[in-house]
Fold this protein.
Amino acid sequence: MIKIQNKQDCCGCSACVQRCPKHCISMKEDEEGFLYPVVDETLCIDCGLCEKVCPIINRPEKLPVMKVLAVKNRNEEERMASSSGGVFIAFAKKVIEQNGVVFGAVFDGNWEVKHTYSETLDGVKPMMGSKYVQSRIGESFSQAERFLKEGRKVLFTGSPCQITALHNYLRKDYPNLLSVDFLCHGVPSPGVWRKYLEEMSSFSAFKAAGKNSVLSSSIKSVPVITGIEFRDKTLHGWKKYSFVVRGSAPKADKNTVLLSDIHYDNPYMKGFLADVYLRPSCYHCKCKNGVSHSDLTIADYWGINQLMPDFDDDKGVGLVLLNTDKGKAVFDTLDMEVRVSSLSDAQRFNGGFKEDVKMHPKHNLFFKRFVDYRNLAELIERTVHKSLYRIAKRKIKNIIKKVFVQLKH
Ligand SMILES: Cc1cc2nc3c(=O)[nH]c(=O)nc-3n(C[C@H](O)[C@H](O)[C@H](O)COP(=O)(O)OP(=O)(O)OC[C@H]3O[C@@H](n4cnc5c(N)ncnc54)[C@H](O)[C@@H]3O)c2cc1C
Ligand code: SF4
Ligand code: SF4
Ligand code: SF4
């Protein structure tokens, strides 16, 4: 039976919940806002199936990467609507064309993030774009298994731990499954996101959002949110991506920009990127770098402006790691602009390869205050605030690092 002794040993994938034959495991949110399994021991028959599917207890061997590519979707509209190179939508279209089913993360009616599936292109579009919140997997693994057994093609996208869990759950290699994960910095707390949303939903909080926030002056009353993008490229480009909230309000257009922050100015993004409220398992990730056995890994090709400046137009370049023959075969059918690269180049600029992301020193203090603190944006600002001494120390460290890198090359 699943017993979580240490929170870092559960990535929240829900594979155990879906596999339990007695339906006696449920996911409950803890005080940091993450879901963990809780077993009703009175119903448990001690069959051990929950432990068998757990990606932390049963971790597959690492597989090496076959090929590393820099990629751009030739359809510029699709690339602009995606976070990176628009690789996900190209795969999704291919699978839908073949009467397949696509699984991915979407916002629900409350702007929280969940996994779902779609059999149509319209249903796939909301999956586009990174949502920097842990998604609730729900019943997705068992739904995918049903489609696979019917012989339908299935594209399943998710974090490396979700894909590791999917493969453990399925227990066999389905030729009609294409699994795609992404390089994963870590997932922020759904509870923190919910609180940030509550603050955003009141107009006064829009005003207090970030010191450089751009707010529509035409909005005079509480708006209804109609769209949220963590990675908008249309306002400041791909590298300076923005966190954008669109909405409607009386006497304003339906898609008025209510809030637009370059990522490093937005309080929620600042806390995420400073590793203040990632899931405990993300600080000791056991599923990255070949463990998930995904057919492909997709990511941002950060640093492409230095490595291949002529390929970078600031509209997004994707990094694609081809991990299996099946992944390569499907990728070869896509109409993409492709440059061959190397793992060492890709690793130089991308924190997503790191398995031991360092917990922010004020992580515990943040969560101690989180429940009662009335202004979350202010709490995040206070948590990530760096003294001048720390800023100077970091700058000197970076200069020394750069000099070393230049000497090496
Ligand atoms: C939490 C998180 C952390 C990431 N960290 C890094 C990183 O450190 N380095 C890096 O290079 N890239 C990272 N990425 C991946 C990157 O942001 C892009 O998602 C990826 O490059 C694919 O871009 P795209 O343009 O091909 O497609 P897009 O259309 O942008 O990709 C959307 C895909 O991502 C999936 N997705 C979106 N949000 C979630 C979520 N919360 N949980 C599970 N799946 C989700 C969707 O289902 C869909 O398959 C991260 C993504 C997420 C969600
Ligand atoms: S041991 Fe079996 S019955 Fe008990 S919780 Fe795990 S899967 Fe369910
Ligand atoms: S990692 Fe997944 S399978 Fe393992 S205990 Fe946590 S939710 Fe269950
Ligand atoms: S960092 Fe690791 S544990 Fe955290 S979401 Fe990503 S793959 Fe899962």
Remarks:
- Residues 41 and 83 are 43 Å apart (CA to CA).
